Recover the amino acids of this structure.
């Protein structure tokens, strides 16, 4: 493995589409964590975006792209419908 | 399931393309809700983006990506045409 | 159907690529309409973005993603060339 | 056809990848034209974005998405290599 | 060919993923050049974005989309691994 | 090879999804490095975006697109589950 970060992504496969949504949100957050590793700074920054609609919308855009990848990986959970 | 949030996405399959649009808008909104879980704050924030064209356009971008995923999941509703 | 909105998307299939472009623009506009349902407000807002190049470019981005979905749905209109 | 606009997109198929680039740029411009149909206003606006690097980059983003669609439509011009 | 511009894209096929990255960066730059053809202006503008992190990130976004297209065209260079 | 830059991308194939995430972050950073090759300037600029939530979110967007490409290249690591 490239460096000793915690492996937070053993697989892209989830049991349900909803768990796929939760994984997409997790991946978006982990990207922010990888770019700004200081949890204290991230906590301070939360107030800055959590009530800034432009940043909430931009965050939803990241989730949408991550979810598309996860949905493709799970064949859109079709086999499990 | 990861946490006790309401499972708002049992399936990506919808009866029609229009229901796919409505699901895409729902998913975009649910992402915002997951990032800013306080419904009161979200309600206050609505005025900030609902008449800000740049944010309306950015929201439409999120819907477009979510819809692409849903359309792929439904094979573009081709079998039902 | 989820709610009593007008079903503006009976199908993603169009006769020509050009009609696919027009549908993409329509879908982008319908997203804005779903997020800001007040037609009067939307009309007032039009001046704000229609001569703002950054917002015109952002709108073109939405159209490009919607068009990609429509083009995929129509198999890039290859069978009709 | 939906309205009497000029059909500027008879096909997504181009002879070469370079013509695909040119078509992508054309489609991005046509989207702007569809949203702001007044050519006079568009001409005035050109100065606003043509030396604004953020808007030039955003325009390149639109071209990249349009080009991806065109490249998929042409099977990445692989058969013609 | 549409106009007498230099054909800078004879093919999307590259020998390696790294050359695919270089081509993606080249395509992003060529889009800027097509929208702002004046090399002198582009040179002056370079300082504006080359130390503006928001614009560097937006440029990386364009490269990511262009690279995705190139990677798809080369079947992710799998056959050459 | 186009120029004498270090070949930082011998392959898109990674052993695990997590290594795919790390590669996506690396590719996003390499794009910034290719556009702003001066490491000193990049180091100075780090403070500007590392605590700017809008830019952290925009960076996460780049990672999401790069990761989608890498996940497609690795067939979503399905065979290795």
């Amino acid at each position: 493995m490239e460096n000793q970060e915690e492996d937070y992504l053993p697989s892209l496969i989830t049991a349900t589409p909803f768990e796929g949504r939760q994984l997409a949100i997790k991946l978006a957050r982990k990207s922010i964590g990888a770019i700004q590793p200081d949890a204290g700074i991230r906590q301070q920054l939360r107030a800055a975006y959590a009530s800034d609609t432009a940043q909430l919308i931009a965050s939803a855009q990241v989730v949408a792209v991550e979810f598309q990848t996860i949905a493709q990986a799970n064949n859109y959970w079709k086999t499990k419908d």
Observations:
- The mean pLDDT of chain C is 91.
- Chain C is about 65% helix and 0% strand.
